[in-house]
Design a protein that fits this description.
By secondary structure, the chain is mainly α. Helix content is 70%, strand content 0%. The radius of gyration is 17 Å and the shape is globular.
Length: 133
Amino acid sequence: MWLDSSLLFLGFISLLNGVTALITSKAPVYGLITTILSAAVAGLVMYMMYRYFYRPKADNSRRTWNWKGFAATTLSVLLWIAVTIFSGLLPTSVNLKLPAIALVIVGLVAFGVRWLLKRQFNIQSALVAQPRR
């Protein structure tokens, strides 16, 4: 589930940056390392939300407020913000800024790999509650 969400965010962030850079003809905002790390931590955030909020609702049980889940999700979001900010501070020799068309290709490849993995291994998405078996 983490990999599925991470690939979804990698595809979305890359496509968004690439298309925006193509339209405005400006350099992309995020480097490659920043994009990959942000997508990985965004996948973690989505998994935390699934684990603590969506999955308990899958069996239609009523649960009380989940402080542990709220704290874990909040810390994950703060980690996502910190990773995005601090990886953006890396020098451009390490954090390469790809051309716009390369970002579009990275985004399309990420979506393609996500689709293949879901089809081949029946990976479930963390974005919706899955019924318990």
